[in-house]
Amino acid sequence: MSNRDWLEKDFYRELGVAKDASADEIKKAYRKIARENHPDAKPGDTKAEAKFKAAGEAYGVLSDATKRQEYDEARTLFSGGRFGGFGGGGRSSGGGQAGGFEDLFGGATRGGGGGAGGLGDLLGGIFGGMGGMGGTATDPTGGAGAPGGMGGFGGGVPRQRRGADVETEVRIDFGEAVNGATLPLRLTSPMTCGTCDGSGAKPGTTPRTCVRCGGAGLVSRSQGAFAFSEPCPDCRGTGHLVDDPCPECGGDGVSSRPRTLTIRIPAGVEDGQRIRLAGKGQPGPSGGPAGDLYVIVHVAADAVFGRSSKNPDDLTLGLPVTYPELVRGATVTVPTIEGRISLKVPAGSSAGRTLRVRGRGVKRKDRTGDLLVTLELAVPSRLSAEASDALDAYAKATADHDPRAHLTERADRAHADKEAAS
């Protein structure tokens, strides 16, 4: 997509959100569109595929706070007529506008080589620069010494734009989240066309250099006392033309097709965490660098283990124990992620006590978590006659012991102090 298209496209409309939409609203809108129009959900539907690509392109800009700000500012500047529109027939600014343009371009001086200032940085950050601002119609490169110039935006040939980021999801079990895993990830997403290798031309043919811009992707036009460079309308800023488009991608150089990647899930990954695969996203137009692939990890709950809220590297386990084991102490068998171990329950332990087993949690390269075992008193729902008689005998033998005595004493003392104060 050319710089011109970039500014004319309404990314907010592509996602169906307001211009002041929050980051969460933008993400939800993108996910909804991507899910409904994914090539796997609607195979062979060209309209759905186009909408899927457009949504990914819009999300790649609006999900990045810096890109979004630059996009909004650039569209405001251009839509406000500060440059007389994109076409060659814009109104001449005249001498009376010189001060405004000087302020806009950060005080750039006439003559080649001067810095474009704020707007140059803005446009450079958005789509890699608009090319030289200092050239004439016969010198579109904006080089030093070009007559009538206002300085360069950073070079005669536009920098290649980066492709959009792509997002997908993967589900793993609890053990894979704790220990880490290497998984194959199969997805259908835009990637460099395998038929034309991204050139956009039918195999056996090659794109030809654009005659109008000489391959620079930019042409210059005069506006009053100034000369401005803008994307070439013939090649749409790419610098080349495709006479015989590739049958697979239609000349875009990008096509959606299934691919399999190998993803490394690090040990200790948490539910909802995003893993970034640099350069595995949508390829940039005209051979530009690819965006990134973000994989959202969903971890299935485990029937036995959990993760500590204070330290996710620590695993948790509720261990049922009997009353005699709490009173007299015992050595019990405890499951871990790696297998079974023996754990000593100290005599006189109370229900709810947590015992720490060192080194049995999440194992990372630089640290290892623990296993937190919480003792839970197992109360039988039924007793045999023999067990019932034994329980009666125990109750009789401990009738003089009141485990709630300290509570009643504290309550009585607090009540007495309140009465005395009144």
- Residues in helix, %: 25-40%
Low confidence ranges:
80-157
Q: How would you classify the helix and strand content by structural class?
A: alpha+beta
**What is the CATH topology assignment of the domain at 162-207 and 242-301?**
HSP40/DNAj peptide-binding domain
User: Which sequence of SSEs, written as H and E, runs from N to C?
Assistant: HHHHHHHEHEEEEEEEEEEHEEEEHH
Let me know the average pLDDT.
77
Strand order in the sheet with the most strands: 10-11-15-14
DSSP summary: helix tally: 11
Q: Give the N-terminus to C-terminus distance in angstroms.
A: 82 Å
CATH superfamily of the domain at 162-207 and 242-301: Urease metallochaperone UreE, N-terminal domain
What percentage of the residues does DSSP assign to strands (E)? 15-25%
Note the main sheet: 4 strands, mixed
Cofactor: Zn(2+)
Subcellular location: Cytoplasm
Organism: Actinomycetospora termitidis
Binding site for Zn(2+) 1: 193, 196, 246, 249
